[in-house]
Specification:
By secondary structure, the protein is an alpha+beta fold. It folds into 3 domains: 24-138, Immunoglobulins (Immunoglobulin-like, Sandwich), CATH 2.60.40.10; 145-231, Immunoglobulin-like; 237-423, Glucose Permease (Domain IIA) (Distorted Sandwich). The chain contains 5 helices and 32 strands. The protein has helices spanning 3-25, 244-258, 265-288, 424-428, 430-442, and strands at residues 32-34, 39-41, 46-53, 59-68, 71-79, 95-100, 108-118, 129-138, 145-147, 152-155, 159-166, 170-177, 180-183, 185-186, 194-199, 210-216, 221-224, 228-231, 237-241, 308-311, 315-321, 324-331, 334-337, 343-345, 350-357, 363-370, 373-380, 382-383, 390-391, 396-399, 411-417, 420-422. Strands 20, 23, 25, 26, 27, 29, 31 and 32 form an 8-stranded antiparallel β-sheet that branches. A hairpin with a 2-residue loop joins strand 12 (170-177) and strand 13. Helix 2 crosses helix 3. The chain is elongated. The structure holds zinc ion. Zinc ion binds at residues 311, 331, 333, 335, 412.
Length: 446
């Protein structure tokens, strides 16, 4: 082959290659840009994310603008290094993020625009461009909370209710007591009044700081306190002598059920009373903390029929075996004894949110009565309801028993508000429920 022929072949190959590259590089697929809106922007900066990618030739230029009543401003601009010949490799992560705060911006409607251009040779080498936009709502004013309720009394481990109004929709509102949050609910089926039932946890140190809090959709937070009167109280210390038969029967049987294998009966009892109890409390807290049913309860809560109180709320128990303390626990409910396998009834109307075995509580049912108030029934021999069932006040949930950590047939009954155990005595008192909760929900009393 002559030199000229060789040159011609090389040139032909180069031309074909360039043409092929040109075809590929002239791709007409514009970048893919996705932003979800509307975006609420408050005073505090929040992260805004969107996705932008260009599988064809890679992104060359990405720019983000915010158009407000006062004009347009560029929030973000990125240019890729030279990618004329081969484009740029698209990053594995198409997510883009930046911080945006409403500080210094005019409150009201705005538009967020993303413009993305690729490395394509299309459009006279300008590339393909995608523009996407979403509405932005700038709101830098904190929500206004107007509290309706007057002086509110609350005891340690007791409950209370407060009603209030907000000047706009909230992402989250309720009452904060120390570091605990109790969510708010509509006070009635119609209207803008809100109600929050709250409690002072038994173990909260000192006097609680109580306020109504609200965070709006733009993330602006506000809090407002009102006249509250806190009554402290002490709880009984109760020594409990554990009989020999408890270690001979109850503990080994429960340990076998729970799969606990400890060296001796005392260690086994401790593993159940401390380890299993803590994990059961986590489960209960998870089920009850964000209880979200609207109000089902009406009137006072029912105490188990013909029952004798054998143990009260928040007793600090010291368990003794052969004269020595082997474990401790706080008893967060009432123990009620009637006859063996006595019917256990729903203390008020609600929705069943838990109905299964639960460690020390044995067969256990939890009912959500609305406004964050739940009740728990433990040690049942039989459960007659399922999760999701709506139950009426006094409807049978099952039968009493001695499942879990129980010495004999009885009902362990507890009430929680926002996942915090409270003294059921207040809720068993029809007058207390009427005056302290229902009257406030209706707006009848201050
Ligand atoms: Zn109990």
């Amino acid at each position: 082959m002559t030199v000229t022929a060789r040159l011609l072949i090389i040139l032909a190959v180069l031309a074909a290659g360039t043409a092929a590259l040109g075809l590929v590089r002239c791709e007409g697929d514009a970048p893919l840009v996705v932003i979800d809106g509307p975006i609420w922007i408050g005073k505090e900066a929040r992260e805004v994310t969107f996705s932008a990618e260009d599988p064809g030739s890679g992104l060359r230029h990405v720019q983000v603008f915010l158009d407000t009543a006062e004009g347009s401003r560029s929030l973000l601009e990125t240019r890729a290094e030279a990618g004329w010949l081969l484009g740029t490799a698209d990053s594995d992560d198409p997510e883009w993020r930046f911080q945006l705060s409403g500080r210094g911006l005019p409150d009201g409607e705005a538009t967020l625009r993303v413009s993305a251009t690729d490395w394509s040779w299309a459009h006279g080498l300008e590339g393909n461009t995608t523009e996407a936009s979403v509405p932005v709502l700038i709101d830098t004013k904190p929500p206004r909370i107007s509290i309706e309720s007057g002086l509110t009394y609350v005891k340690r481990a007791g409950s209370a209710a407060v009603t209030y109004r907000l000047d706009g929709p909230a992402a989250l509102d309720g009452v904060r007591v120390g570091d605990r949050f109790f969510r708010g609910f509509p006070a009635a089926e119609t209207g803008k009044r809100r109600i929050a039932v709250f409690a002072v946890p038994r173990d909260l140190e000192g006097s609680p700081k109580i306020s109504v809090v609200a965070t709006d959709l733009a993330g602006n937070a506000a809090s407002r306190s009102w006249a509250t009167q806190f009554q402290d109280r002490e709880f009984a210390q109760v020594p409990i002598q554990l009989p020999e038969r408890f270690f001979e029967n109850t503990v080994p049987e429960l340990a076998a059920d729970l799969g606990i294998d400890e060296s001796d009966v005392v260690a086994t009892f401790r593993a159940i009373n401390e380890g299993v109890r803590a994990s059961n409390e986590e489960t209960i807290s998870g089920v009850t903390r964000m209880a979200d049913e609207p109000r089902h309860f009406v009137g006072g809560f029912l105490q188990m029929r013909n029952s004798l109180v054998t143990s009260r709320f928040a007793e600090a128990r010291s368990y003794l075996y052969g004269g020595t303390e082997v474990s401790r626990a706080t008893h967060f409910g009432y123990d009620l004894a009637a006859t063996a396998r006595a019917p256990v009834e729903a203390s008020n109307a609600g929705r069943v949110v838990f109905a299964q075995e639960l460690g020390i509580y044995g067969r256990c049912v939890i009912v959500d009565h609305g406004l964050g108030v739940t009740s728990l029934y433990g040690h049942l021999s039989e459960i007659d309801v399922s999760v999701g069932d709506i139950v009426g006040r006094g409807q049978t949930l099952g039968r009493s028993g001695a499942t879990g950590l129980a010495g004999g047939d009885h009902l362990h009954f507890a009430i929680l508000v926002g996942g915090v155990y409270v003294d059921p005595l207040e809720w068993w008192d029809a007058r207390w429920v009427r005056d302290r909760v229902e009257a406030r929900a209706r707006g009848a009393t201050p």
